[in-house]
Write a structure and sequence with these properties.
With 207 residues, the chain is α/β, with parallel strands linked by helices. It is 43% helix and 19% strand. The chain is globular and about 55 Å long.
């Protein structure tokens, strides 16, 4: 549903895809991210981040192509890396049946091209896999596994890991991201950058 003062949806969709192919949305998001980091006194490029994933349902028409047995959901999986304040650094979209460690490998292979000073990554126990650790070590990354507290029962906030869960919460506040409505991963990724970029711009405009 478009606002009444917008043009025909075909025109809007054409412009959206054209701008997406020119990486406008990810560029605007990354500029807003750097400005927001400077606003709070941090360096432009982060040196540490957090890895995690989220499985979201896909309507039948949107496809998705995978079933996450652990979450009992069919759809897509969002593998993301965020800085230690929860700002989105990179996202990798896969079918829901792709393991977390496998999805994180692609992030580790390319994230330093965008954020060259990043070296330390926090993650939970599912990322403690030999192949992922080898890929990380080869690229001079340190992955620190943040485990549950001894004797933990029920939910407890864990140091470092909670910020990425908050980022997922920010995403799902956008109705378009509650489920995966897009057939193509690049369109879905662009919608994520639009939503997170809008969040950063509001934060910069209203400190």
């Amino acid at each position: 549903m478009l606002p009444v003062h917008f043009g025909p949806w075909q025109t809007i969709d054409w412009w959206f895809r054209r701008l997406m192919q020119r990486f406008l949305f990810v560029t605007l998001h990354n500029i807003a991210l750097m400005l927001d980091r400077e606003r709070v006194g941090r360096k432009v490029s982060p040196t540490a981040g957090v890895l995690d994933s989220q499985t979201v349902k896909s309507p039948h028409a949107a496809g998705g192509g995978g079933y996450d047995a652990a979450k009992r959901l069919k759809g897509r999986k969002r593998h993301i890396g965020v800085d230690t304040d929860g700002r989105l650094l990179m996202v990798n979209l896969t079918a829901a049946d792709v393991q977390d460690a496998a999805g994180a490998e692609q992030i580790i292979r390319v994230i330093r091209k965008r954020w060259p000073w990043l070296k330390h990554l926090f993650a939970d126990g599912v990322y403690n896999r030999g192949k992922l650790m080898s890929v990380a070590a080869y690229r001079d990354f340190v992955i620190e596994v943040v485990r549950k507290l001894a004797g933990q029962q029920g939910f407890q906030v864990l140091s470092r890991r909670w910020v990425v869960e908050r980022t997922f919460g920010w995403m799902t506040r956008w109705r378009r991201l509650v489920r995966n409505y897009e057939r193509r991963c690049d369109v879905s990724e662009a919608m994520i950058h639009v939503s997170m970029g809008a969040l950063l711009i509001r934060r910069i405009a209203n400190p």
